[in-house]
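Lecture notes, structural biology module. Today: joint structure prediction for complexes of two components.
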Amino acid sequence: METLIDIKNLRVDFALRSGTVRAVRDVSLSINKGERLGIVGESGAGKSVLGFSIINLISKPGKITDGEIIFKGHDISKYSYDQMRKIRGNRISMIFQDPMMTLNPVLTIGTQMMETVLAHMDVSKKEAEKICLEKLTKVYIPSPEKRLSQYPHEFSGGMRQRIVIAISLLTSPNLIIADEPTTALDVTIQAEIMDLLLELCKTENMGLILITHDLAVVSEVTQRIAVLYAGKVVELGLSEQIINNPQHPYTQGLIQALPQMAGGKKRLNQIPGMMPSLLDMPKGCPFEPRCTICIERCKQEIPILKELESGTQVACFMRNGANKR
Amino acid sequence: MSAILEIHDVDKHFDISGSFLDQLQLSKGKITRKRTVVKAVNNVTLDIQPGETLSIVGESGCGKSTLARTVMGLYKPNKGTISYRGDRIDHLNSVKMLPYRTKMQMVFQDPYASLNPRMNVRQILEEPVRFHNPDLSRSEIKARVSEVMLQVGVDPVWASNYPHEFSGGQRQRISIARALVVDPEFIAADEPIAALDVSIQAQILNLLMDAQEQRGLTYLFISHDLSVVEHISTRVAVMYLGCICELATAKELFSNPKHPYTQALLSAIPRLGGKIGGHVRLSGDVPTPINLPSGCAFSGRCPHVNERCMQEIPAQLKLESGSVVACHGIEEGRI
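The predicted structure, tokenised, for the full assembly:
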């Protein structure tokens, strides 16, 4: 399999007056061509920052302080603003959470779509319009010719998100980063959007990074899952493995906390406590204060990802055998 | 067993037509006055039994929050009656409503918006006690607040802190404590976990279930998260465009959904390790509640629609299993 994007030891820091927030800490991930990867974590785990940092959208005071993002043989994390503009929205595009915030309310859908095409492709206006219509048809917008001259408020939430997806498809990107694309939508519409994304990834052979807090959604759509906790990947592996046989105590806790896993029992399994503040990280494993199986070593050292026999990588001294020195 | 709360044929409409001049329209050369009315809740009949958890599910805009607020007396219904233990409460003024306020409490969705940022936790929790029980001494109030704080898992030493010093989960615990502190019988919880993370959701749900067990509470639970609803409810009502289309026990509804909308809604729930694509596709979008379809609210999107569905509003039909369904297709045996 050909690697599409390779993230190596990525580190993103936010220098605040109250201290440095290490939002993403030494994250290494790679995605193959046409592969779908899910990034799961709670709010504040750093999953959105990770997504934004891939296309260098980190705003000040945030900064990529270390690591590489290799895309097509080049380290795009070091690209200048102008170089990055040729990649962002062209080879790698992004879908955001709230379609009402992403679309400009005072421009028609057509204007917004044409802008993207004309900025990235050397085509005439007529050809650009043809591309727009073709992509709108792909996301099942009925009578796209009429729709091009309408404004975002004339569409429903689900339609708007489909238009955002159509915009991200315009330049036939190699990778789409979808940051909680259905969190603002209802379940029935969520199912439609996920269906559409899955279908498009398959037909266009696109890579997909799906960032979400919903384990059930990623397990349905993606092939691999990375679980993020306090800026670190704590578990990475095939979706089936992670869902059916989670190794890290945090992943286990997350899955067990779902109501459908409670079985006949009335009480849900809960993870005690909450995620530590990113300003005040424990010295050792970030999950140690909430962990039920931690040992003395967890308080002192930060565990690194190690591969198990099943192929799943896990960062836990109790699981990856690293504690047997 | 008599119901703790009976909602009979309740309508709640909002007039959004604005001022007199805004209502004027030019049509066919004449100036006419036109009103625009949002029909948020239509002909809802429900009863809530003591000790049960009745959940209301539906997509955004279907009127579930409006129904809860109407029940609590925050809105006056346009039609119909609401009775609490047999006493009609929907037409009471705010003074006469007071004794019921200690019996019925509400927990809101967003704990960031529902707690006053300028009051500390002690003030937030003591205010309702003092207001409803003016005879209690200071120490009695303090004891009661501490007891409730312990019960919801917030250490009473934090009582002098302000809401912004707490995390989302802790704030929701404080909102629940505020509801519990006047010792209610009935709590309407409007999406109490929607703003929280997965691992915190489980903590709050456990807290709600524990409180129910200890105090014998009755819940009206509103959520769009169907897997949560399946877990905690006794009975579930499915709403679509302000109408109840199905009401059944949680077990019956999730294992054997009858109404075509319920079937579509349930098939859309993402399942852990499931495969995508098996869900029932509905054509089109939810229509606006301003121009309701003349017949069944769901008729525009229903795969089993016929002529009668377009004309006539379906009545609530009681099935053998005890479920209530409003659908012509089921009544005629077509579905």
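Point to remember: The radius of gyration of chain B is 22 Å.
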